[in-house]
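Following the same procedure, backbone shapes were mapped to integers, yielding the entry below.
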Amino acid sequence: MVIRSQRISGKTTMAAPISNEEQVFITELGRRITALRKDAGMTQTQVAQALNVSQQAVQAWEAGRRRIQISILPAVARLLAVSLEDLLGEEPEKIARKRGPAPKWQQLIEEIDSLPKAKQKMISEMLSALIIQARN
């Protein structure tokens, strides 16, 4: 658990303690930032300059020693060319399919998929010939 003091308006205040769960999240976020930064071919210094923070701040984020400010996360995601969800390690939501029966062509493909390989090959060759004929 990490507790840091801050000096705000001449007063010293204590930062809230970090739970183990939050520390794990901060560490994993740091690893993702490191990997994404390297994938982008950037140095910590380049990231720091682009975000107008110190290189030591970027180093501390990547090492999981310091929380990254929430307000800077969108800029980090844009800089590293990823979505905020990817940066945070969130799974994308599944896109809901429309309800109702599958289209006829999809039903046929599923039927073909259940046939033996030899028959699948024969149907595939026939479809290829029909598609070529339809284009002409």
In short: Helices lie at 20-39, 44-51, 55-63, 73-79, 84-88, 104-113, 117-135. The mean pLDDT is 82. The beta strands are 5-8, 11-14.
